């Protein structure tokens, strides 16, 4: 079934690209002055490199978070298509599969890091083997989710970066580090004190490891309810990214709810390039298939 889904996605993706529909959609977004934010979790080197190559061929300018902020603050629509690349969680595979190539071809990448896995080597969902249980845990209170996870067996191998690897990553010229909370909770399921602790604890640990204060944040699972905004401002954050699948438009009403398009790392190049330019998500939304398109 997964193979059929992969083939159908690639067939549609290539049809959209080579029919010219993708280019027309891309040009329309550029005419509206939209910027693009696109994020990964743990892609293969082949997928990342091919997507970045095609994005460069289509004329994207790869930019960091500071450039996005400056462009939004200017109130002027960019004349060139701008692309902000980020990756969530802090997977160990990001080093070899993304950072090496990004450094080689000078692509800025922001790594949004959850800090507890730096020590434990795992993300909490790695312990969950049942999709129904996963849904229940995501809907539970943060305290109940944490208590349940503690009863499950730890993941047998390390999948998250170590502190030393994060420190090494932070020294790369084209890498920047952002906050993704301490334990990667579902923030609307947290109490306000839990939100404050999650953001502040991750902030301090990142400062301790990389020696500089992060100024950008990404909401775990894309979920937020607005209580996070004041906490982020107090900690000195200038922007926060969601998983809302649309382009970043001039005059964004809230810098703490910036949208990003998501990669599907189980799909192939053609589908993911259509995701990168926002066409795939637009088609899904137009046909009412889902509100949020992610992995």
Automatic annotation (TrEMBL):
- Limits of the NodB homology domain: 81-295
Q: Which PANTHER family match?
A: POLY-BETA-1,6-N-ACETYL-D-GLUCOSAMINE N-DEACETYLASE, PTHR34216
The protein depicted here goes by the name: Polysaccharide deacetylase family protein
Q: Keywords, A to Z?
A: Membrane, Signal, Transmembrane, Transmembrane helix
List the Gene Ontology MF annotations in alphabetical order: hydrolase activity, acting on carbon-nitrogen (but not peptide) bonds
**Originating organism:** Undibacterium parvum
Q: Does the keyword Nucleus apply?
A: no
Q: Where in the cell is it found?
A: Secreted
